[in-house]
Design a protein that fits this description.
9 strands; GMP Synthetase, Chain A, domain 3; binds guanosine-5'-diphosphate; 306 residues; 6-stranded mixed beta sheet; alpha/beta; binds magnesium ion
Length: 306
């Protein structure tokens, strides 16, 4: 049979509790850092997409915010994006942190899996952090009691161990179909969103307590010249005290955030970058629908490559 007839293509959503390693897995699967990663909850605030094309298949991945109690409007918005990611997909990938037991929180998340009713791969992540491999096996054995997963794969998204097995299990579950996107397409996300996220990641890495939750970043201007790309962006926080923290002593914190973000942008976009950062207080932005729309990459307008 000619190979093109056996080609498989479809969509796979990655879901799980916060901090399980969903975004790290997306990046490992695609081989590009598309999603920002941190140990702070709510690092991923909206559904993100990343496309992997192999000779045998094309998988459109959707990375999602962690499944959590949606007690505020902003959290509810995040959970809506998780639920929306369960519609019209071919495969689900449920990521669980191998250091954690199957708590009631996990059971709640598994209810979403049951409702989605699509073939689901159980990924037991962070096995590099579990010294006793027997514990990994014991935990793997627990999962079928909760749901009949299509496959069970222990991995370390960070080291890459097991990531190919995840990819192969997903491909087996995809329908026969031709490519949805051209081969070199990796994401729908606009460059200015990716750049804003890179800045936010550096802030998350450097700040603590309520600051990570209070931070939003928007790129204001994006100017490409043959020699370099000039980007100016605003970091929004909710209170003056947070602004003081983000700027730091004599601007030291803002400078280190800017340098780290610029280096990552230069690597990712493959061009020299001039990055200018501003910090503004915008009280209660998490409850302002208009501002939340501005942060939504699907609604971003303006200069874009891709
Ligand atoms: N040791 C280890 N850490 C991991 C692994 N996968 C993710 N992490 C870390 O776990 C934290 C949460 O990862 P992230 O991908 O942002 O989780 P998400 O909230 O599920 O998207 C980050 O600090 C990651 O570096 C892994 O396989 N091993
Ligand atoms: Mg994430």
């Amino acid at each position: 049979m000619p190979r093109r007839l056996a080609f498989r293509a479809g969509t796979a959503s990655i879901i799980g509790l916060p901090n399980a390693g969903k975004s790290t897995l997306l990046n490992a699967l695609i081989g590009e850092k598309l999603a920002i990663v941190s140990s702070k909850p709510q690092t991923t605030r909206t559904a993100l997409d990343g496309v992997l094309t192999t000779p045998a298949a094309q998988i459109v991945f959707v990375d999602t915010p962690g499944i959590h109690k949606s007690d505020t409007p902003y959290n509810q918005k995040m959970m809506r994006s998780v639920r929306a990611s369960l519609d019209s997909i071919d495969v689900l990938v449920f990521v669980h942190d191998a250091q954690r037991v199957i708590s009631t929180e996990v059971e709640g998340a598994l209810d979403l899996v049951k409702k989605a009713n699509v073939p689901t791969v159980l990924v037991l992540n962070k096995i590099d952090l579990v010294e006793d491999r027997k514990k990994v096996l014991d935990l793997l054995e627990q999962f079928p009691k909760h749901y009949a997963f299509a496959a069970y794969v222990p991995i370390s998204a960070q080291s890459g161990e097991g990531v190919e097995a995840v990819r192969d299990e997903i491909i087996k579950l995809l329908p026969r179909a031709s490519k949805i996107y051209p081969e070199d397409h990796i994401t729908q996300m606009p460059s200015r969103f990716l750049a804003a996220e890179m800045i936010r990641e550096k802030i998350l890495a450097e700040t603590h307590q309520e600051v990570p939750h209070a931070v939003a970043v928007l790129v204001d201007t994006w100017e490409e010249t043959p020699k370099l790309t000039k980007i100016s962006a605003t970091i929004y926080v909710e209170r003056q005290g947070q602004k003081t923290i983000v700027i730091g002593q004599k601007g030291a914190m803002l400078k280190s955030i800017g340098t780290a973000a610029r280096l990552e942008m230069e690597e990712f976009f493959g061009t020299k970058i001039f990055l200018e950062l501003f910090v503004k207080v915008r009280p209660d932005w998490r409850n302002q629908p208009e501002f939340l729309n501005e942060l939504d990459w699907r609604r971003m307008t303006g200069e874009r490559d891709e």
